[in-house]
Amino acid sequence: MIRHCMVHSCAVVGLMLLTALAAFAEGAEPAAKFELADVHPSARSTNPDASDVSGGLMHGGRYHLRRATMLDLVRMAYGVDAKKVLGGPNWLEMDRFDIRAKAPAGTTATTVKPMLQALLAERFGLVVHEDKKPVPAWALTAAKHTLLKKAEGSDDGGCHSTNTGELVDVTCHNMPLAAFVSRMTNIDGAWNYVNDNPVVDQTGLDGGWDFEFKFSRRVRASIAGAEIVSLFDGLEKIGLKLDPALLPMPVVVVDRVNRTPTPNPPDIERGLPPVPTEFEVAEVKPTDPDYHGDSDVQLQENGRLNAHSMTLKEMIEEVWGVTDEMLVGAPKFAEVDRWDIVAKAPDAMAAEGDADVDSIFTMMKALLADRFKLAVHYEDRPISAYTMTAPKPKLKMADPASRTSCKEGPPTLVKVDPRNTNPVLGRLLTCTNASMAYLAEQLPYLANGYVHSPVQDSTGLDGGFDFTLSFSTAGQVQGNNVSVPGSKTASDPNGAIPLPEAMEKQLGLKMELQKRPLPVLVIDHIEEKPTDN
Fold first, then answer.
1. Handedness of CA 65, 70, 76, 81 (dihedral sign)
2. Tell me, what DSSP letter sits at residue 447?
């Protein structure tokens, strides 16, 4: 009898629980999701200036990312630094994807994150978990006696930096040290010392502080005879130390992810808002003849383009991502006459994150076609391009499970950067689990001062390799003549080592220029003067 009552009671309780859960599910808000999303692998970019992820949440509920690695997607979806995304397959930093999605009205940069999480789970089968693990970081500590002064008053704290050319002078007022380390990379030149590694306050000093320090921008290290005061030296002079450490931090661990996304819904283009291809307004005018400064083009976050003192040839090479040897048919006036252009993209393309470089360049192409009647086409023509061989390879096989990547900087956190120790070797690449095909593909972006066209991998080497490569910038090589493919320049008297020589001596890889058919951009027609504004 007692047993019968207990079973009956359990059944009643179970029924009540199921009813409550059902009622909760009915009343709960559905998981945040994009209304529609197009996901596909990125087309290979030919422009070294447009080789990284760009885009973000645009006005009007448009979410648009280009060239995002899975590492980019995870860090953006979960709001963590790249160094705090652990695990995952070896292609996590290699394969790139484009995403075009339609978000519900009122979506913000914060509320879009769970939508991206849901998209990655649905389309890539992404599974992650949160954990706490040691991560390479910079630890800020304080000496027993410092030159910091306790701030008085309650006004907002902040740091201001002034670059005098020789040194960066940093003045901080009422600045909590925890806030200081979180904003350190915003100081002019500081990122080149700490890179994208986390910086953690371990000083134990509470409240706001007034302090001032000076340091050299790392680029000064490439100038012979320059007095170098590193960021670490500058901080130590006021009683603060910045040292590399392994510190436990909250991380996101990638447990599982598919390399190929599930197919897009049929006729998806009909449901997605069309991508604007023309500027909303643009002004084109000749550069002031009294101006003799540098030419430049600036892309701003609000969808504005500001080009100053640019020739038509420079504009074409910039937006199509080609170099002199890959551009054919430019008339003389296209190399001489200089123009200023101010243009604004439609509000729908204004992003809350970085400017969408590719969309701005697409609009620039339309502007040149409209105002200068530019017409172009691609065709294959024989041009000089590098072929990479391995006559005497000096490479270490990598752990095949490690992530594939090639990045600027030393392999570990170091206070004495080899580029500062030997300033004339201004470039240092660290590659992990990099195949020769991957290295050949990345060289136009990693060494665009030397490599201006696709590199052909003829090494015959299989698998991935770990290595570092130290060489001089093209500008450091005497006369700058290695900036043009075909240079036979060897080491200069000042100790500069061109990329081809460095690759042969350090890696046993040979870079040889050969003629082979490659796509070039041919100008069919262009007007000397633009149509009226």
1. negative
2. T
- Are 403 and 498 members of one domain? yes
Count of the separate structural domains present in the chain: 5
> Does the pLDDT of residue 201 top 50, yes or no?
yes
**Nearest Cα residue to 339 out of 282, 280, 279, 276:** 282
Q: Which residues of 398-424 are buried (b: 16+ CB within 10 A; e: fewer)?
A: beeeebbbbeebbeebebebebbeebb
- State pLDDT tens for residues 105-163: 889 989 999 999 999 999 999 999 999 999 999 999 999 999 999 998 777 789 999 98
Question: Would you say 509 and 389 are in contact if contact means Cβ atoms under 8 Å apart?
Answer: yes
Q: Same domain for 501 and 400?
A: yes
Spatial neighbors of 499 by CB under 8 A, at least 6 apart, are 427, 447, 450, 451, 471, 482, 511
Indicate yes or no: pTM above 0.85: no
- Give the range of the structural domain holding residue 81, as residue numbers without chain letter: 36-126
Mean pLDDT of the chain: 86
Residues sharing a CB contact under 8 Å with residue 301, sequence separation 6 or more, in sequence order: 350, 351, 353, 354, 355
266-319, pLDDT tens digit by residue? 888 888 877 788 999 999 999 999 998 889 888 776 778 899 999 999 999 999
Q: What is the rounded CA–CA span in Å between residue 149 and residue 159?
A: 14
Q: Is 453 within 8 Å of 443 (Cβ atoms)?
A: no
Please write the tens of the pLDDT for every residue from 59-91: 778 898 989 999 999 999 999 999 999 999 999
Residue 530 forms part of a structural domain: no
Closest CA to 359 of 411, 323, 311, 305: 305
The answer to whether the beta carbons of residues 521 and 328 sit under 8 Å apart is yes
93 and 66 within one domain = yes
Q: What is the 3-state secondary structure (H, E, C) of 155-183?
A: CCCEEEEEECCCCEEEEEEEEEHHHHHHC
C-alpha Rg value of the chain to the nearest Å: 27
Say how far apart CA 363 and CA 378 lie, in whole Å.
19
**Cα dist from 478 to 14, 204, 245, 487, 498, whole Å:** 82, 49, 39, 12, 10
